[in-house]
Amino acid sequence: GEDVEQSLFLSVREGDSSVINCTYTDSSSTYLYWYKQEPGAGLQLLTYIFSNMDMKQDQRLTVLLNKKDKHLSLRIADTQTGDSAIYFCAEKSGDYKLSFGAGTTVTVRA
Amino acid sequence: DGGITQSPKYLFRKEGQNVTLSCEQNLNHDAMYWYRQDPGQGLRLIYYSQIVNDFQKGDIAEGYSVSREKKESFPLTVTSAQKNPTAFYLCASSLTLGGSWISTDTQYFGPGTRLTVL
User: Fold this and answer.
1) Cα–Cα dist B97/A92, whole Å
2) Which residues of B are less than 8 Å from A97 in CB distance?
């Protein structure tokens, strides 16, 4: 079955790096996603990684995938106040279905 | 502007009433989805549709109904049978429903509708 876990809260100082961690259980996952949700809004796709990749970088975002440990992380470099949001990890296994974690609330402090 | 729109943004319902949430997309996507979000929880799938005139139950379909008469539209009705309907409802779409190794089934989300039962 699918089970995705994330820590619930992260507080980071402006300008520092944020690292959000996620673990999943389905070894047949094909794609893993990171979405961002600002208050009262829908989910915005940030990035995704194919399961045969170890790393993907996109501007300030770096995704690391450890398939052996079923561990995914999202690093945000030079964190800004606009990065304050809830971040969801999601995995897609062999069919259409996305399984979401509960979300990590990131708070950026001055 | 291409995207997914949901209306209304806020909806209030009395107990015992049915309400319909609108979802429209102009991305030419075949697949559409409805999710429910509760505080401190991940998203849970209510219904999904692979193509026009076809839809399937997700994990928590009880008390909900959908239709897919047009490619662009996938309305969700929250019926009086839904015991705890107060939640944030999110609609999503993807180019295809997808198979295992296809990135074109990446899901894109609308802005959501917050439903409150009074």
Assistant:
1) 12
2) 45
Question: Which residues of chain A make contact with B99, given a CB cutoff of 8 A?
Answer: 95
The proportion of chain A whose per-residue pLDDT surpasses 90, expressed as a percent, equals 75
CA–CA separation, B23 and B48 (whole Å): 12
Q: Do B42 and A48 touch (CB under 8 A)?
A: no
B31-56 pLDDT tens trace? 999 999 998 888 999 999 999 999 99
Average pLDDT of chain A, as a whole number = 91
Amino acid at position B100, single letter: S
- Chain A positions in Cβ-Cβ contact with residue B112 (cut-off 8 Å): 40-42
Q: How far apart are CA B64 and CA B59, in angstroms?
A: 11
HEC per residue, chain B: CCCEEEECCEEEECCCCCEEEEEEECCCCCEEEEEEECCCCCEEEEEEEEECCEEEECCCCCCEEECCCECCECCEEECCCCCCCCEEEEEEEECCCCCCCCHHHCCEECCCEEEEEC
Within a 13 Å sphere around the CA of B73, how many CA atoms are in the beta-carbon half? 9
Q: Dump pLDDT digits (tens) for A44-90.
A: 999 999 888 899 999 999 999 999 999 999 999 999 999 999 999 99
